Amino acid sequence: MIETVVSTPAVAAVAVHAAEQVAGVRVQPGVAGLVTSVVRAARQQIKGLRPAPVEGVRVRWSGAAVVLEVDVVISGEDQAAAVSRAVQRSVRALVPELTGVEVESVFVTVVDVAC
């Protein structure tokens, strides 16, 4: 039997990609993600790696499924609730499709509104 293991950064990168497919959305780390982002970037630079962007997404494993927290900046022309639902739908659809990992929940935080 072959077992496939999907890493947390891979799931986060797919979630970033899925969220940014929604018109007017840019994934950006909130306050909680800034420290993690700086530490991760330093580690990757030391190793000479250029990984896919994962900043702005936190992944928590719940058994075989994941709980995702996505921080976004939205366009000032869009309704936050509608955009958040669209991000949830996009992430819920694309993460399992590209990784095979089940998504338990997607929490979206609007950290800024771009004018």
Automatic annotation (TrEMBL):
Source organism, top-level taxon: Bacteria
Record InterPro entries: Asp23
Pfam families, per the entry: Asp23
Protein family according to the UniProt entry: Belongs to the asp23 family.
Entry protein name: Asp23/Gls24 family envelope stress response protein
Organism whose genome encodes this protein: Lentzea miocenica
